[in-house]
Specification:
By secondary structure, the protein is an alpha/beta fold. Helix content is 21%, strand content 24%. This is Glyoxylase, beta-lactamase superfamily II. One of its GO terms (molecular function) is metal ion binding.
Length: 289
């Protein structure tokens, strides 16, 4: 049997305008609240899949690896490594994770692989028994980033992953050896080249973790993209194809950055064609259907 549980990691507050791209504040302020610095609240949510005696973690959030000055710059709220606390709450530690799936290697999705910041101490790679799985093309991007997204990657993390001997890079259209044949993977280029999207088949329909292709419920609306997206027009086309495929098979999305909605179904208005979410869940624990 396969079960799914959503896990909270460290949260952030980031500029609302950056998160909603070219959409005006008059539009996106209907969906989210801002603080006095125009920042919105964001989760960095992970997903735990438990199956056949193994624990598979999809993403690790931003973690607590930043030094205090950078922690403030990027709006990280908590000092402690919240994802480790979330694992403890369900009786696990990072050493119990067998596979970590990384949709991409931006610091707000992969920073949780690192230990919490300590003055004068280098960051340590957590999850000592896990195989780390990410897309081959995205790894190439992370190793040779464009100046526009260079600051989104953590150079020391890339070296730690490579030197661990437990890194698996998956080619587009191929299966992951660590995950096995029952896991399907979809690849996307709109947010960052080679972003890898896991699709987990469940009895009542697939569960998809789209990462930053669709970071939260407001971004289900087709024209809404982030200022951080490398290729917004491509992203919109990829998003539409994914949403249509989910509607056809009663699929669900798990949102990594939505502070209120962890999982939801997708629907489309028959009159205006607009995509929306339905049956939103703030948290998922031990979902088996």
């Amino acid at each position: 049997m396969r079960t799914i549980t959503t896990l909270e990691g460290n949260s952030q507050r980031l500029d609302g305008g950056a998160m909603f791209g070219n959409a005006p504040k008059a539009l996106w302020s209907r969906w989210v609240e801002t603080d006095d610095q125009n920042r919105i609240a964001l989760s960095c949510r992970a997903m735990l899949v438990q199956e056949e005696g193994r624990n598979i973690l999809v993403e690790t959030g931003i973690g607590a690896f930043f030094a205090p000055n950078l922690k403030s710059r990027y709006g990280v709220v908590e000092d402690r490594h919240v994802l480790l606390d979330s694992l403890t709450e369900i009786g696990l530690t990072d050493a119990d994770i067998d596979v970590v799936v990384l949709t991409h290697l931006h610091f707000d999705h992969a920073g949780g692989l690192l230990s919490a910041w300590q003055e004068g101490q280098p960051a340590q790679l957590l999850f000592p028994n896990a195989t780390f799985v990410t897309g081959q093309r995205h790894w190439q991007r992370a190793r040779r980033p464009h100046p526009r997204d260079q600051a989104s990657f953590i150079p020391e993390l890339l070296s730690l992953l490579e030197n661990s001997g437990r890194l698996e890079l998956v080619e587009d259209g191929k299966k992951s050896k660590a995950l096995g044949p029952d896991w399907r993977l979809r690849f996307s280029d709109g947010h960052t080249p080679g972003l890898m999207i896991p699709i987990i088949d469940m009895p009542d329909g697939p569960v998809v973790f789209p990462g930053d292709l669709i970071p939260g419920a407001p971004w289900v609306h087709l024209p809404i993209t982030m200022g951080y997206d490398r290729f917004p027009e491509t992203l919109i086309e990829e998003k539409e194809a994914l949403l249509d495929s989910l509607i056809a098979v009663n699929g669900r999305l798990v949102f990594t950055h939505d502070p209120d909605v962890a999982m939801a179904y997708v629907s489309r208005d028959a009159d205006n064609g607009r995509y929306t979410v339905s049956n939103p869940q703030p948290r998922v624990k031990g979902l088996a259907n």
